[in-house]
Structure formats: structure tokens, C-alpha cells
Design brief:
By secondary structure, the chain is an alpha+beta fold. It has helices at residues 2-7, 25-32, 51-62, 85-92; strands at 15-17, 41-46, 66-71, 79-84, 101-106. The protein has one domain (2-106): Tetrapyrrole methylase, C-terminal domain (Methyltransferase, Cobalt-precorrin-4 Transmethylase, Domain 2), CATH 3.30.950. The protein has 4 helices and 5 strands. The longest helix is centred in the middle third of the chain and has 12 residues, at 51-62.
Length: 109
Amino acid sequence: MTTALAISGLPCDKFLFLGFPPRKPGKQLHFFEPYASLELTLIFYDSPRRLLKTLENRKPLFGDWNIAICRELTKQHEEVIRGNYTQVLAKLENKEVLGELTILLSQKI
């Protein structure tokens, strides 16, 4: 998690680690809702097969926040996908994402 925070390009001064969000969209909304107004970097884990759906479901709540998706950190196929919500969703649209994922969200860069 700290490696992801360090290479994300997002603010490191204030952050909150949320672990794994619930699987169901309705429960995810209630899980993330209290944090939508906080000015800090949110960090959570998610599975590759749920990633796109999780991000699409959260777009109304987080508007166009900045995102960093860190994949396979400290391994051979390490990758970081950065941008605002719209940019990252476009990058992921036709991409098969595999491996361990750490997702970071922030209102600021």
C-alpha cells in the first residue's frame, strides 16, 4: 500500500486505507459515501474482474477525481494507470487487467 501511495503521483500527506470494498454495488455506495467529501487520498484493494464495475459505480460519487491504479507492484509486470476518472475509464475500456490491484483516489493532484 505504501509503495502504491509513493508512486501514485497523488498527495501523500493525508490518506485513508479502506481495505477491500463490499462486492455489491448498493453496499459499495454506503461504504464509500462517508469519504466523498474528505480532502485526502483514499486507498483500497479490488479484484481485476470487479475493477471496471467498481469504478463505473463510483463515478457519480467521486465526480472526476484523480485515480491511480497500481498493478503488480514490485513485480516484473508492474504498471500504474493514472488520470482523472474519465481518462482512466477510457484506458481500461478495452484492456484486460490482471494481477493484484491497489486503487488510489484523490480530489487533488
